[in-house]
Each structure stands twice: as structure tokens, then as C-alpha cells.
Amino acid sequence: MKKCDVLVIGAGPAGLCCAIEAARAGADVILIDENRRPGGQLFKQIHKFFGSKQHKAGIRGFDIGIELLEEVQRYEVNMLLNTVAYGIFDDKTVEIVKDERITDTIQGKKILLATGAIENPVAFPGWTLPGVMGAGAAQTMINIHRVLPGRRFVILGTGNVGLIIAYQLLQAGADVIALVEAASKIGGYQVHASKIRRAGIPIFTSHTIKEVKGNMQVEEVVIVQLDDSWKPIEGTERTLSADCVCIAAGLHPSIELAQMAGCALGFSSELGGHLPLHNEDMETTVDGIYVAGDIAGVEEASTAMEEGRLAGIDMAQKLGHLSKDKAQDKKEKIRENLFALRSGSFGYLRYKAKLNIIQTMEAIKKNQEKKQWSYK
Amino acid sequence: MERKLQERKVNNIVCRCEEVTEQEIRDAIRKFNLTTVDEVKRLTRAGMGLCQGRTCGSLMEKILSEEINKKVSELLPLKKRPPVRPIKIKLLAKKERESE
Amino acid sequence: MNKTADVTVVGGGVIGCSIAYYLAKKGADVIVVEKNKGPSFGASGTNQGACPLQLFEPPVLELARQSLKLYKNLSEEIGYDIEYDNVGALVCSVDEKQYSDMKKHVEKKKKQGINVRLIEREELLKLEPTLGENVVVGVEEWESCGVNPFKVNYGFACAARRLGARFLFSTEVGKIEKDKDKVTSVATDKGKIITNFLVNAAGAWSPQIGKMLGLVIPVKPRRGQIIVTEPTPLNKRWRCISDADYLLTTAFDLKATEVSKDKRIKLGVAGVYLQESTGNWTIGSSRDFADYNTNVTMQTIRYIAKRAIKFIPKLKDVSCIRTFAGLRPFCYVDGLPILSKVDNPQNFVIATGHAGEGITLAPITGKLISELIVENKTSLPIDAFSFSRFKNAYLQNLG
Ligand SMILES: Cc1cc2nc3c(=O)[nH]c(=O)nc-3n(C[C@H](O)[C@H](O)[C@H](O)COP(=O)(O)OP(=O)(O)OC[C@H]3O[C@@H](n4cnc5c(N)ncnc54)[C@H](O)[C@@H]3O)c2cc1C
Ligand SMILES: Cc1cc2nc3c(=O)[nH]c(=O)nc-3n(C[C@H](O)[C@H](O)[C@H](O)COP(=O)(O)OP(=O)(O)OC[C@H]3O[C@@H](n4cnc5c(N)ncnc54)[C@H](O)[C@@H]3O)c2cc1C
Ligand code: FES
Hints:
The structure holds three protein chains of three kinds.
Chain A: E1 2-9, H1 13-24, E2 29-32, H2 61-74, E3 78-80, E4 83-89, E5 93-98, E6 102-113, E7 117-119, E8 132-134, H3 135-145, E9 152-156, H4 160-171, E10 175-180, H5 190-198, E11 203-204, E12 207-213, E13 220-225, E14 238-241, E15 244-247, E16 251-253, H6 256-261, E17 265-268, E18 273-276, E19 289-291, H7 301-318, H8 324-341, H9 344-367
Parallel strand pairs in A: 1-2, 1-6, 2-3, 6-19, 8-15, 9-10, 9-15, 10-11
Antiparallel strand pairs in A: 4-5, 5-6, 7-16, 12-13, 13-14, 17-18
Chain B: H1 2-10, E1 13-15, E2 20-21, H2 22-32, H3 37-44, H4 57-68, E3 87-88, H5 89-93
Helix pairs in contact in B: 2-4
Chain C: E1 3-10, H1 14-25, E2 30-33, E3 50-51, H2 60-72, H3 74-78, E4 89-93, H4 99-111, E5 117-120, H5 121-127, E6 137-141, E7 145-146, H6 149-162, E8 166-168, E9 173-179, E10 182-188, E11 191-200, H7 206-211, E12 219-229, E13 240-243, H8 244-250, H9 254-259, H10 263-266, E14 272-275, E15 281-284, H11 298-311, E16 319-331, E17 338-341, E18 348-352, H12 358-374, H13 391-398
Parallel strand pairs in C: 1-2, 1-11, 2-8, 4-13, 11-18
Antiparallel strand pairs in C: 3-7, 4-6, 5-6, 9-10, 10-11, 12-15, 12-16, 13-14, 14-15, 17-18
């Protein structure tokens, strides 16, 4: 069994930043990720970033990743890659498998769960046909493996992910036939949407995919218009010829390990669904177990990084590596950054949702002891 | 035509691992007045597959919420147990060692 | 608002629901109170659903035999497929030293009228190539079955409801009111139920119900952990294979597990390996006392996995997709069920202590308890399971 001060599960932006902050303060940190390369979603993002200047907007996700990795090395974080954390047990022990053959137990005084998010499936007839895939899978193939999974794409969903994937597909030389969006408005940022429009790709709002047809794989995509209550309008079907459907219907937090650890859950549709309740230092209802990044609410790499830092600093403080004042200073700066990142019309909704999660957590903590039945 | 569409929609597969259809799920919910996704799983096998509901869990929540007229926020997600990824029995059996 | 009922059953597990069904069939007006959101959130939803007849000993054996008979036609009777699966049962040993015990086991079972057959190593391996080289001897028998425990539980509940039984879920019994020597009503967090009879089918939680009436019910939760695998091709002959250790030590002999120096035996790891018709294996199980904790622990899972590979080596390359744990209602005085009225209050009935055998025994338990309440006599003798058997044990305990 290995022991450490801080165990971080997931080496995306949130996990990396937590590991860096905790290690910088002097904690002994182990960071694990199931992939062969660290970075989580970051390395798939070859496009320029959204967010404010200070948050490296305009820099490619790829480059941010490289920068973070250098810091991880500098502060001697012990990084285990190709390593799955398959369970979390009592006494903050985590069971791992490395390279599909070495098993071990790691106990952390503090644990960060930074496991990211899972793509939302959409089940229309034919969704199990080869050629229907999640945006994440498509992104991995084109940006990391450099292969195109098809030639003619229909994309479902116009959040940032859908818009970006469309653009990346174009860059990779594929045909994007159409984007389909159930809501009446495009979900993602205008900058991304206008790129798509400029390329002359139709975006069908108030539409959904009714069915995908094909013998052995996707051949045709039938889309249909939706009325105000999201019911299909008969007779508005149209058939598109395509060999690939990319589903970008949003993500939801990957909370399995948090559930296993017994963390109380909250819900926020702005943040992707069920997520572990946490306080303003990212600690969950279970002492010493923290969450940061998409697991704590699906947002952006920039917020994930700040949340990771916040958790790392709080852990370092509680482990005695940082004075209270010093930690407080750092935390305040980060909170300001987070506030700035959560501005604008989308951001403000997320800010409110986050606040709500923190308040629910406080209320639960208060109520925990006095669970009193009134027997009538 | 309309009827045929309806049929197609409900025979749509929700859980790919266990090949459970939307209709089977709706039937089970109605027959047994189910109120939790864990129960839907027990009686239909949806969510019992290799991915343990990573793919179909959220779809099950949506269907259940429609059937019982509750918001997804009022439902709890599927209960989770180790392992979060499938793991070979021989690896479970070993401790801090390499398996051959 | 107050509700009234002939019989109130506390606990919506397989035992409570079976009782409700057989009572409703006799025309009783039944309310089942269950603190969880549905049935099967207790032990009844965390087991293997194996009913291996040869593992039963008198006095429970007769109950098991009758229960298996009821199971045969249950799907038809309640109009819902409980996935009755005629898997038989093989008890198998990987320890030379157990050979003579297994021979004795066969003789005993034959005397009990169970149609068992001893099978030597070579034949075992020929009939079931998935068994490991180190098996020593096996005993097969084909009266046993497997069932889908969820479907049994929900099937009973649904059939009972059709016959008029009411189910109150998310409702917890917290207090019981008494007048002299009779229960008058049950108080829950959702209101009061005025009742003529009260049945305690609260499984591992049944002592808490007893306590509300000042009774000590000697039951405590005995945790069991299970591994579930991905599907594999179906075994040729046996899909329900038990470790001889289960029979000879861990399941029944509490002392033996306590004093053993072998950590595996101490944790009660000796299993039933059951392959469902879907091809998935459930690999059980363990026995320890951890209060009401239903987490799995890696140490125990490790022993279970290691032991399973000894019996069925090909499992080593099969993936585990889930683990789970549940709480058996275990009578720590003698390990037997408690199916009984008590002296005071007279209208209080206990139906628990089924330990690791409650799925097998559910149908017969429901039938007998319904007879006990409605007719005040039972079609099988149940004296061996009476509550009064504890009186001495208690006095000793207190002394
Ligand atoms: C297509 C797309 C475009 C985006 N564009 C932008 C953008 O321009 N700007 C921006 O700010 N944000 C963007 N985002 C969002 C951003 O990528 C995420 O918010 C961010 O990566 C979340 O970071 P994280 O650390 O929480 O999780 P992730 O980056 O998802 O990392 C989680 C890591 O944990 C690993 N893991 C999970 N479970 C386990 C386990 N049990 N054992 C071991 N490892 C495990 C995962 O494999 C993964 O590597 C985009 C997202 C997508 C999908
Ligand atoms: C790992 C394991 C493997 C097993 N394998 C097998 C097997 O293969 N074959 C077999 O025959 N048996 C097996 N068993 C045993 C079987 O599962 C149990 O004996 C059986 O489920 C007990 O049923 P029950 O209804 O008494 O208890 P439970 O199912 O636990 O039901 C009791 C119910 O009472 C409720 N309750 C408690 N207190 C209150 C209250 N105050 N108010 C309202 N409700 C309350 C609980 O919520 C619970 O739902 C196994 C058990 C375990 C743990
Ligand atoms: S899709 Fe349902 S369990 Fe995998």
C-alpha cells in the first residue's frame, strides 16, 4: 500500500492544478489518470480558448496542458498514468490498476476527485448503429489519432462542444452536412457559431434527429421540426444523407467515485445534472474528500483549473503546509478569478447554481445531527 | 403511419449493453409503480451491463421522470459500487503484485 | 389520517411481501410498511437467489423442500415470471481432507431422502470442463433451483396488491402502541395504523421492532459480499456450484469461523458460484459482523476472487463489473429462523432470522405465517422456530 498527503484522481486541468498547488506548498502528491497521457480534455482542444485574457484565452488547450505538465514535474508530483482508480473504500483508500496488470492500494490523507464529465446520450431509433458517436470520441479520433471516423457528418447539439467539433471536422477535411439543435436558439458562444455560418453550414434549430437509417452503418439521418413543447411536428421530416452522426448533447458530471465515497449529491441543470455538494473550498460532505472541475459541475477548463487550485490550497492548509493567512490570500484571489469567469449571461447562471450548491451543502451539514422523526 | 412511428420510437434501445428497450422500461415502471432508477434496473436489467449505466443511466432517469411526472432533479441516479471500470477477477485476487 | 388493517407487516423484503401475498389470498386486509422507496432495498435485493436443497439441514430442510415445491408453480400462480431456473446444485471440494466429510454428506442426504450422487474428480472434470484441476470430489442433486430474487419480491408484492393488500413505501415504523397484552396500533412517520395483528418481517432490523415492545429478538446483521461478472458462455452441466467449506464451516458453524486462524474462514469466505441464464456469474460470498454497514471491503473481495479461481479457473480472465453487499438477518443463538407468535403481546408475530436462506424459504414462510394468523395452526410443524426457545439462552445471557 502506498500512502500520501494528497491523492488526485484525474489528470485533467482540475486535477493537474490541484496537484501543482498542493505540491508547491510541500505536500506529497500522487496524481493518477486512466489515459496514457495526462491533460484530460485539454489535449483534444487544438482550437483557441474561450474565457478571459488572464485565463489564457487565445492560447490553445494543447499549450496550456504542456505548461501545466512542466509545473507538475517541477514540483515532483508522482504521476501514475494508464492507471484506473476502480474503487474508493473506507479510510480514504483507493484501489488502482496500472497498465492493466499491476494492482495497488493508495491511501491519501486528502483526496481530490477530478474525474471530469460523461457525454449525454440521445436515444433515437438507430443510435446504436456504427457511425453514431459521441463528440468526445470523434474529437479524440481527429485531434489525437488524426483519423476521420467518416466523411459526411450531422451534428446533434449546438453547445460549444457541438460548434467546436463541427469546426474541427471541417479543418480535418470532412463534410459537415448540418447541425441540429432541439432548442430554439444556438447554445454555444456566438464567436463559434459565426465560424460555422461563415462556412455555409445550415444550423437547424427547433429540430431533432428522429431516426438514423442504414443497413450495417449510418446511411441516412431523418430530422424533424419540434413545436414549442418539443413535440415533433408531423410532415416536417427531411432526410439527410450522411455516414456519421456526432452527438454533442452536453455532458454530465462523472460522479461514480463520489457516490461510492458517500458524498451527498445535489442537482443543477445549469451544471449538467447531479453533482456532489461541496463547500466554497471544494470539500464535499465527506471530510477530506474534494471535487473540482467538471465533476463539480460541467463548465470550462478555465474554471476547472481555478477550482483545482482552490482545493489544492485548502488541502495544503489543512495538512499544515500553508499558514491560514497565506492560504486565505491565495483563495481570495482564486475566488475573484472564478467570479470573473462566471460573468456574462451564461456565466452568471452558473455562478448562481454554484452558490446554490454551496448553500445546500451548508444547510445539510447543519441538519445532519438533528434527524428527528415525529411519530404521529 | 402514425402508429408505426409510435411503435418504432418505443422499441428503441435504451440500454445498449443489455439491449433493453424503452417500451420494456415503461412497462416495468407502470406495472410495478416504480419510483427509482435502481428499481427500473432491477426489473429490466437496464444499467446492469458492462458499463453499469454510464451510458444509459441518464436516459433511464429521463424516462422515469416522464412516467412518474417528477423532475430529474428529484430522482437519485443509479447507486454505484466498485469497480467503476470492469476489472479482471485475477486482478481483484492479487494484491500489490503483477499478474502473470 | 389513521388507517386500519387486519394485519400490518413491517418490512417489504421478500419475507414481508410473501406473507402479504398469502394473507391477501386468504382474504385478510393487509398493510405492508416499508421504510425504503420500494421492496428489495434490504437483503432481498442483495443476494444470489440460489436455492440449493442439499445445503439444508433439519429442521429447516423440510421448509426448504416445501418452499421449492411452491416455487415450481409460482410464476404461473402470480402471473409473473420469477425466472425459475432448474439449475440443480453441485457441492464441490478442493481439499483432499474433506473427502471423507463429503462421503458422509452423501450418506446423510440420502437418508434425508434427497437424491444426491457423489462424483469423483475425473468424472467432474469430464462433465464440466470449466472446473479446476484441483477439485477433489463433488455431490450433485437436481431438485434445486435458482430464482430472480427481485422478481420474486416484486412478483409477490404485485400479486398481493392485486388481491387488495396496501403498500406504504418510504414509511418507517417508529413506535408500537399496546393495550395490556395486545398491540393496538403502529405509529409511522406518515401516520398511524390501527391493526389486529402485527408481523415483524424487518429482516436484519427486526430487533429494533422487537425493542419497541420490550422484546429482545436475538438477530443481528451478518454481512455478505458478492462479485458480479460479465457474461461468459453457459456452463455445460452445473451453473450452481458451492464450495464444500460453505457446508462444512462458514455458513453454519459460527464458532468454527470465529476461532479459525485462516483469515479467509474468519471472514466467512466460501461461496456459491452461480451462473445466471444471461451468462453472468455472481460469486459469493462472505460472512462478517459489521453492524449495518453495507459497503464492500477490498480484503474480503480479494479472498472471494481468489477462492473462486480455485474452483473455476477460467474466471480469472473474466471481468468483474460490480460488487455489492447485503445484511442477512442472522439469529446469533442457533442460526435458525424465528417463525412464531409471542406470549405478550399475543397478536405479534415474528418472521425473520432467515440468514442466508431467505430467498429459498420465502414462499413457505409466507404460507405458514398466513396460516398461523388466519387459522392459528400451521400445515407444517414450526415449534423448532418458536420464540420461546430463547428463554434459557436469555437467562444465561443476563446471568
Ligand atoms: C469539445 C470540447 C471543447 C471544449 N472547449 C473548451 C474551451 O475552449 N475552453 C474551456 O475553458 N473549456 C473547454 N471545454 C471544457 C473543458 O475541456 C472541461 O471543462 C475541462 O477539461 C474539465 O476538466 P476536468 O479536469 O474537470 O476534467 P477532464 O479534463 O475531463 O479530466 C478528467 C480526467 O480524469 C480521468 N478519470 C476519470 N475517472 C477516472 C478514474 N476512475 N481513474 C483514473 N482516471 C480517471 C479521465 O480519463 C480524464 O483524463 C471543452 C470541452 C469539450 C468536450
Ligand atoms: C450476500 C447475500 C447472499 C445471499 N444469498 C442467498 C441465496 O443465494 N439464497 C437464499 O435463499 N438466500 C440468500 N440470502 C439471504 C436472503 O437474502 C435473506 O435471508 C432474505 O432476503 C431476508 O429477507 P427479509 O425480507 O427478511 O429481509 P430484508 O430483505 O432485509 O427486508 C427487511 C425490510 O424491512 C425494512 N424495515 C426495517 N425496519 C423497518 C421499519 N422500522 N419500518 C419499516 N420498514 C422497516 C427494511 O427496509 C427492509 O426492506 C443472501 C443474503 C446475502 C446478504
Ligand atoms: S448501456 Fe446500459 S449498462 Fe451499459
